[in-house]
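BUG: 3D viewer hangs when loading the predicted structure for this chain

Environment: internal workstation, default settings.
Expected: structure renders.
Actual: progress bar stalls at 90%.

Input used:
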Amino acid sequence: MQALSRRLARQSFNHSPAISSLKSIYPLSDHYYGADHPRMGSTLVTKGVGHLIRKGTGGRSSVSGIVAAVYGATGFLGRYVVQQLAKMGSQVLVPFRGSEDSHRHLKLMGDLGQIVPMKYNPLDENSIKAVMAKANVVINLIGREYETRNFSFEQVNHHMAEQLAMISKEHGGVMRFIQVSCLGASPSSPSRLLKAKAAAEEAVLRELPEATIIRPSVMIGTEDRILNRWAQFAKKYGFLPLFGDGSTKFQPVYVIDVAAAIMAALKDDGTSMGKVYELGGPEIFTMHELAELMFDTIREWPRYVKMPFPIAKALASPREIFLNKVPFPLPTPDIFNLDMIKALTSDTVVSENALTFDDLGIVPHKLKGYPVEFLICYRKGGPQFGSTISERVDPEAFP
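Structure tokens produced before the viewer hung:
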């Protein structure tokens, strides 16, 4: 009724004699005031996800046509993926299994009603189907770098991904499936996590050959699980252990670049379907060099203890031995994570002939600078600590 009223009013406006005489003096073009104007049309071209209904200018209050079920949305990478989806007007289904607070920060990222939290149980197939019922895009971010009494590496990183792929195949309306794995995933890896991720990739591609696999390297960001843990350990104990001799190479990547890569793969014309992308940052660091960057940012004097891998594994083993033998949950491992230590025994860098950020049209950020500025919260004298000469002098240098 409102649309009909507007149309009649527009017709009477255009055919009014007074308006006609006014147009002869001040010519008006409907092209600049209607939906045909480029500013009023949709700037979001969501290719590769079918013929979707899109409305608006492509911002948060628009409708992109994407209804994305993001499994693992409450995790580290999840918040950045949800923000990117919500920013272009997508509806995001956020399955969660924790408390109501676990998804609270995500609801602010989209327009009213666009972020839809849904309670689910990853062990209950019906609850997974309930989340996926209205979705046309499925993004799997589920993963964990340590085991618990309830969930093993294989259960979290392999079987859940396989189950999502099978349900998506049965669904019939899922146009894109994106599986986030890990750089270095291989059946021959010494790490159980990387073995499980490799098995998950194989299972997903077996069920959905058109799925897209994303393999990010170690991700750096405000809520990361590497630089934050190193800084906390160094602040608490005054030193940082270097496993091996600190020469293990990896290619850390800014988490926002990974989220942007997922969006680029989602919005392309389908060229990324059925392909595997390895996402690493523009620089290769050794463990020692990355630790130096961390100490430089928090403005602390670097102190290291070189720890051979056998000793590091021995210190991390008790948790794995007693995990399922004691009647209570054990603490979450931080630096001394046995599986992580095993992964550090080999370099983790992007393969020579792999598809990378370049193939998605993205230029990744260098780490030094803004991507690691979140570490200033660990400066002992506040954010500006170390800006004077006296604060930069090593106390041990005084006689």
